[in-house]
């Protein structure tokens, strides 16, 4: 599994990830998480939207700017990439996506990176870069890799042993997979994963194995670094 340097291909799957520069937080509170989610939905369109705030003022329930109609935003989203799963942690994120239009991944990631950096810097009265360089992209080359990556992303907080105190700064598509989150149906491509298991419990058993493997790999990397 290597970081891809070739052009992204329509119909292919990719693991996209990045973290804050100097491992700094890219989400300071829950409102930052939700702002990023709005960006995911609004920037995943072929056309340029202009100001997020202007679009949100149109896509609100009963004209109330305090209440965003997420179902409508989700319905209108998906022109550049199709999400399979995602996770947001305080200082990094992971996406598993399929490119659905020419240069879709590059266009989407430029929009989301630029938009969140501008928002975060204005909010915190800071300047400069927020993310650690250009986003990383790994091409998914086998079905086994696709399944493993889905488990790794959906339950990424467990791999990093994120405590309950920090759960406010965690958001993942796991709720979509369990069926508990019926509103935030961002991952329109999750059937490519769930369709390969008899039921959700079988997928849950699989992800439990993925977590254990990922934790062991993480320990080995730390050990190799120390030695």
What is the topology?
Blueprint: E1 13-19, H1 30-43, H2 52-58, H3 70-76, E2 81-89, E3 92-99, H4 104-124, E4 136-139, H5 143-154, H6 156-159, E5 171-172, H7 174-178, H8 191-194, H9 200-226
Antiparallel strand pairs: 1-3, 1-4, 2-3, 2-5
Helix pairs in contact: 1-4, 5-9
What does this structure look like?
The chain is of the alpha+beta class. The protein has a domain at about 15-140 and about 165-190: Transposase IS200-like (Alpha-Beta Plaits, 2-Layer Sandwich), CATH 3.30.70.1290. Helix content is about 45%, strand content about 15%. It is built from nine helices and five strands. The protein has helices at about 30-45, 50-60, 70-75, 105-125, 145-155, 155-160, 175-180, 190-195, 200-225; strands at about 15-20, 80-90, 90-100, 135-140, 170. A five-stranded antiparallel β-sheet has the order 4-1-3-2-5. A hairpin with a 2-residue loop joins strand 2 (about 80-90) and strand 3. Residues about 60-65 and about 225 have low confidence and may be disordered.
According to CATH, the fold-level topology of the domain at 13-142 and 167-190 is Alpha-Beta Plaits
Task: State the CATH class of the domain at 13-142 and 167-190.
Answer: Alpha Beta
Q: What topology, given as strand order, has the largest sheet?
A: 4-1-3-2-5
Q: How far apart lie the N and C ends?
A: 24 Å
CATH architecture field of the domain at 13-142 and 167-190: 2-Layer Sandwich
CATH superfamily of the domain at 13-142 and 167-190: Transposase IS200-like
**Tally of extended strands?**
5
Give me the secondary-structure category. Answer: alpha+beta
Strand content: 5-15%
